[in-house]
Amino acid sequence: MVLIPGGKTTVLVCCGLVVALAVLVAAQQPPPARGAASGVSVERGKYLVTVQDCNGCHTPFKNGEPDMTLMLSGHPQSVRVTSRPALPAGFSTAINDTNTAWAGPWGVSFTTNLTPDPETGIGRWNEKTFMNAIRLGKKLGVGRALLPPMPWKMYANLTDDDLRSVFAYLKTIPAIANRVPNPIPPAK
Ligand code: HEC
Predict the structure, then answer these.
(1) What is the best residue among 72, 75, 112 to mutate for testing ligand 1's pocket, by most ligand atoms within 8 Å of CB?
(2) Among 22, 38, 45, 150, which is most buried by a count of CB atoms within 10 Å?
(3) 89 domain-assigned
(4) What span, in angstroms and rounded, lies between the C-alpha atoms of 165 and 96?
């Protein structure tokens, strides 16, 4: 701010002009994409997958810990779950030993294979499929609504570049062929 001799009024007018100009410039910007562009990074994707605990659900558990030899391969096809278990009064959800089959009012959901296997994982997905699955909460980005407990509503808030980074990282992990079963609908 340049101090103009001659009184406060001039200074105030100057300030007003600067603010008006700033508002005008801001109004001309295109609407922001989600989050500032920070670039796509496999390293960041790995970090985000770790701290958002994708392994806590998508990696089968062994002895109470995610079995990292089966990293992110989803509910093991060899572990058969055929119906929603009966739950004690006052309880709504049950999880199986591998932490990958989740029973609740929605029936039973199975965590999906997030490895780059082309037949049973995300090997044939493109970035758009992944972004839409997370942002819209839809199977393969276009299908039925994703079931609980997939926390897509939280992950939908990730910036575009963070989501891209997660996808880029998932494409680099070892591919594991594992066909996850379809969900079991709730009993009528
Ligand atoms: C609390 C458990 C849980 C966590 C944590 C979790 N998921 Fe999921 N996720 C699921 C379940 C269950 C499904 C299957 C839902 C269904 O079949 O409708 C799923 C489905 C998905 C799908 C949809 C797959 C498809 O075939 O359309 C994607 C993509 C996905 N998860 C990615 C992730 C990523 C990436 C993370 C970590 C950032 C993550 N999930 C964390 C439980 C979880």
Answers:
(1) 112
(2) 45
(3) yes
(4) 30
Looking at residue 124, the DSSP 8-state letter turns out to be: T
Domain encompassing residue 135: 38-170
At residue 38, the pLDDT reads: 86
Closest ligand 1 atom number to CA of residue 122? 26
Residue identifier of the C-alpha nearest atom 5 of ligand 1 = 54
The number of folded domains in the chain is 1
Of the pLDDT bands very low, low, confident and very high (cuts 50, 70, 90), residue 180 is: very high
According to DSSP, residue 68 is labeled: G
Instruction: Determine the Cα–Cα distance for residues 161 and 123; give it in Å rounded to an integer.
Output: 20
Nearest to 162 by CA among 127, 129, 123, 186: 127
**107, part of any domain:** yes
Q: Report the separation in Å between the CA atom of 21 and the middle of ligand 1, taken as the mean of its atom positions.
A: 46
CB 122 within 8 A of CB 72: no
